[in-house]
């Protein structure tokens, strides 16, 4: 089992190593240091002083990067009540009072994972694998590494299988329960777009192209500062301008990747274009916007509305659909009508 040990005190590392190795591999991540080699599976073990806000801020960045790791073990010395609450607010799945308790916890997590692997057809496991591939793709791009198309393909095909088998509603519920931020958004858009493509009778090839375009549509956001991406509340004009660069950033990241199809590049660059020419970045007119992009744009807006955010409850699917219906002129009316069944889950 890989244990990522996040600490603000490098001197703590030898004791952790002595305790967990060689049964487990300890990968250190010292706050403020370089986290080279970080992947998206294993256990995240956090032992930092949560009273120090700058350190908590650095930790939040790491947690965002490692959103795909489901187990987050926090060491809170003496189990101080306010710090335990802080750990849970940061996403802790377990809180222990001494590093030594990690031995038992990691063994339990490993046993549970082995049992899960025996049951790989379980939909929850399929979902985790899709989410893990997604997480590793985002994290690579954020760290300036090349994007691996194979991760995007793996995530997309897991989502297609899952949505095809269990429907969109269970996917929406699960993603909203376990993930947050841009990561949650992309998983939702892909689920919605795939359900839409399946519902309108797309061929398998078209469903996977649409799914891939959805998986990658906001990949450019991996290069936008988290302080803007995760800002609760309104963005100012300058922040807005920065965020509006993400379709072009995504397009530039992907255009040189071998094996990428032109439809996917089109979706990534143009998912914020509107039929009346009021969208961005290219202000395209209706005839220049392909069917795949039109479906993607509808799925994107719908998913953004029904997302759950820490600072507001998700909008109901009915209300979100009403908003789409009010965007006549920007979205294709016939497609919005065709989307009704998917949107309302009817
Ligand atoms: Fe976008
Ligand atoms: Fe989006």
TrEMBL record:
SUPFAM superfamilies noted in UniProt: HD-domain/PDEase-like
A GO molecular function held by the record: phosphoric diester hydrolase activity
Coiled coil: none
Domain HD-GYP: 160-346
Cross-referenced Pfam families: HD_5
Entries under InterPro entries matching the protein: HD/PDEase_dom (IPR003607), HD_GYP_dom (IPR037522), HDIG_dom (IPR006675)
Entry-linked NCBIfam families: HDIG
Protein name, per record: HD-GYP domain-containing protein
